[in-house]
Amino acid sequence: MKNVLWSVVAISITWATAAVAEKKTWGIGARVGFFMGGEVYIEGLGDVDADSGPAFVIDADFAVSEKLSLGAFFFNAQTAAYGYDASILTIGVKIKGMFQAGTVSLRPGLALGYQITSVDGLSEDATGMDVAALFEVHVPIKPDWAFVGELSFNTQPSGGTSDADVTWGPLFFVTAGIGYGL
């Protein structure tokens, strides 16, 4: 009877170890990069050039199938226009495909977010909707860890302040960092 008990314990430990070693069904990541700036429309002022600046992304993804993930993200970019510093903050959701090319994972996707743009010296933030396409490349560097590069853009097709519409088309950014899991 003792041998049967030890056999059950040994098999349970083996299965538990194998389950831990399986590919993760979730992942988190953090990246820093470069926001390329571009043209922003402000009602009453017309088209304004937004400067380039640093960008930062934190995200989490959950696999819903072998080749599809859903996730959430936080994006922040620093820019300026007419000598006023501005910060774009977006919180949203995304859906991505996951395709293997050897050991590299290619992940095209779409994102939707709620966006707040704060400009130094103005009392009211501009808010709006972000719609974006993204493309990530995950290169494994050790088990469960990957180097992650992303090319994406930020938009605000609708939004603004109580006094003026503030909208823009695609403003591209590129980021690189680390990912854990998925």
How are the SSEs ordered, and which strands pair?
Layout: H1 2-21, E1 26-35, E2 38-42, E3 46-50, E4 53-65, E5 68-81, E6 84-97, E7 99-101, E8 104-119, E9 126-142, E10 145-156, E11 158-160, E12 166-181
Antiparallel strand pairs: 1-4, 1-12, 2-3, 2-12, 4-5, 5-6, 6-8, 7-8, 8-9, 9-10, 9-11, 10-12
Q: Output the number of helix runs.
A: 1
Unreliable stretches: 12-21
Shape: elongated
Number of distinct beta strands: 12
Give the spatial strand order of the biggest sheet.
Answer: 1-4-5-6-8-9-10-12
Quickly give the structural class. mainly beta
Largest sheet: 8 strands, antiparallel, barrel
Mean pLDDT: 90
Secondary-structure element string: HEEEEEEEEEEEE
Helicity, as a percent range: 10-25%
Strand content: over 45%
Distance between the termini: 42 Å
Radius of gyration: 21 Å
Characterization of this structure:
With 182 residues, this protein is mainly β. Strand 5 and strand 6 (84-97) form a beta hairpin. It starts with a helix and ends with a strand. 11% of the residues lie in helices and 70% in strands. It has one helix at residues 2-21; strands at residues 26-35, 38-42, 46-50, 53-65, 68-81, 84-97, 99-101, 104-119, 126-142, 145-156, 158-160, 166-181. Strands 1-4-5-6-8-9-10-12 form an eight-stranded antiparallel β-barrel.
